[in-house]
Structure formats: C-alpha cells, structure tokens
Design a protein that fits this description.
single chain; about 425 residues; alpha+beta; Aminopeptidase; Alpha-Beta Plaits; six-stranded mixed beta sheet; four-stranded antiparallel beta sheet; 18 strands; about 35% helix; elongated
Length: about 425
Amino acid sequence: MIGSHQGSEEQGLLSFLATRESDIIDFARELIATPSVNPPGDERRVAELVSDRLRKLGVTDVQLVAKDPSRPNVIARVPGTDSGPRLILCGHLDTKPPGDLDLWNSDPFDPMLRDGRLVGLGSGDMKAAVAAMVYAAGALIAAGGSRGDVILVLTADEEAGSNFGSRWLAQTGLLQAEAALIGEPSGITHEWEGIHIVSRGAALFKIKVHGTQMHSSVSDRLPAINATVQMARLIDRFDRELKSSLTYRGHPFGGLGPTVNVGVTAKAGVFYGVYPGYAEFGCDIRTLPGMEESEVRSDVEAFLQRAMRDQPSLDADLAWEIWVPATEIAPEHAAVQSIRTAARDVLGKDVPLTAFPGATDAAPIQLVAGIPTVAAFGPGLLPAAHSPNESLEVSGLLKAAKIYALTSWRFSMLN
C-alpha cells in the first residue's frame, strides 16, 4: 500500500511504473532468458539488452565499459536538474551456473510465471532487481529527472570475484557518487526482510596436511602417517572449536557473529594401494566489520599450532588465499533514511536494519571508490539464489521498481 503523502512528482513516478507493470515483468523474463553464466563469464548479450531498453525509456547517457570486451559493465546516468547528491543503483548482470538440470522443474533459461512467482536462473540474484532499476530510471526520466544524478551501475563478474566488474570500475575511478544501493535479494525467510547496511566480509583459506605416501600394504609394519585421517580429525576440531577462538567484537547488526564454514572443499589421497601422504581442505569464514585480516589470520595460525602441539604426529600448514573486508554504512546516513521511508510507503511497514550474510559489490564500491554503500536491498530470497528452481514473488519485482524510484528521488532532494 503506497502512502498518501507523496508530492505530485512522486505520484508521477509511481503512475509511470503502474502503467508499465507488464513491461517490467516481461523485461525481467527477457533478462533471465539471456544467459550470462559465470563461470565462464560473458555478459555481452545481457548488457546490450539492458542498454537498448534504457535508451527506449529515454535514458540517453548509456556506456558499456569493460576491462575485457566480453565482460562489459553498463553505466547509465539519469542527469540531475541541479547539484543534488548523486546515488548509484547497482546490480550485477551475471549469474551462477544452473547446476544439475535434473533438479530443475523447468528450463532455467525459460522463465515461468507460476503461482505468483517468477521462476528462472538469476530471477532473484539478481535480474529482477536489474529490471526494476532500469524502469526506475525510466520513471525518473519521464518525471524530468531528480535533483541529483542517478547512476545505474550494472556490473559483470560479481559471481566470480568482480575483477572485471565493480573492483575494476572502482580502481579505474569510474564510480563517483555520494551513496550507493545494491539490489541483492534482502530476504532470508521472507522477502524484504531487512535493509542490509552491513556486508560481511570473507576469509578464504586452505589447510594443507602432510603425511607419508607409501605402498598401503605395509602401513601396519612401518611408521606412517595417514594424511586423510589426520585431515578428518583436524576438520572436526576446526568445526567444533575455531569460531570460539576468533577475535571479534559484538556488532549491533552482526547477527550471531562470524560464520565459520569448514571443509567447503576437500582433497585427499591418490588411489587404492597408495597410503595417502597429502590432504587439504578449504575454509570460508564470513567476517564482521572490525575484524582485520592480520588478526583473523593470526587467530587461525595460533589455532593450527595448538592442534599440532596437542597431536605431535600432525603436520599441517596454512595457505591464506582471499580476504574481502566487511563494510557498513551508518544507520543515520541520508541514503539509508531515504530507503527506509520509500520502503515504508511501498511495503506498508517499517523494514529493520540488518546485516547481509554474505559479501556483495559493496566492498570495492565503498572501500576502493570511497562511496558509502547499502550492501543489499532488493526483491527475492537469498537462500533461493544459486539453487534449482530459483524464483521470487512477481509482486516483489514491481515493488522494487517503486522503491528504487522513490529512494532516488528522495535522496536527491537532500542537501
């Protein structure tokens, strides 16, 4: 239920979107039907589709910029009428692979409308949000523009590290604004569950376990260390005890603290007849704001050293691989307040401020480009992303377009 206190300009935005609901749904379906699977990664077709639709909606300042020609990003600007604050609306154009097609009830690239839901690969993560942003930009153009620029940044490569997308855009100075909003799905158990002002970071590493490779027929006669068995014991200890060994402070939007995922990858052994001399497993820690790379790495190193002291036959070392810092934007930031009032008017309820469980494009946008960023507020459910039969509520797609248009207008009116 839309609130009744909008001015005539805001009512014009909403009216524009209300008369184009079927167009918004059809465009979201076109985006889903245009593969942009990553890996391997190729966003050219979907980027052209988005660019063409923006131009048809009257957005003339549209650029395709790319580190690699097959990995384009779309940057589209709705020019402001004055010198109001600039807002980035950010979404990514790529999707994860569909996985086992036998687990899908329909072709993942043939979007279906079923029981009020839009089903298809990338529907929630996040082609519906991209469609909503495109039509929000069209609504702003039809209204004559907001006071400050509204910039759509629709990125490549978010699903595989953002090296061709937001990270490259931030490093090359192509992103400039006073705030950014990323339209990742913000529901965990129900849609529009929270405005995610925190994006948790990630610490990704492997533990390498060394043993004795030899003929397995004599393992009971000679001193030997089974790397696979040692790995299994160490995985169990990491799973039970590592979280309590990490240094972190409480955070008002941090939920239950960091999430420790042990054994997200594992590799061991050679073949029958070979006593395993090497094994390794990967770990994935989702971190909170305030957790520093040096501190987390030191905690993991200390934990591993204790395990080896307790079990002298254990020989293992840490291979530190990827660190993505957490981000946060202040609850009182004007962008957050603009989103909250827009969401209240469109959804008919107050949406709490929360933390996004994973990482988003917020890290390069905020930490490299220096733009305060709301990590996620968009249609869909995060657990449905990367899953067979991915879907979201069709009504959520239409609400997203209204929220993005109202947020952009209200933020631009602030000093």
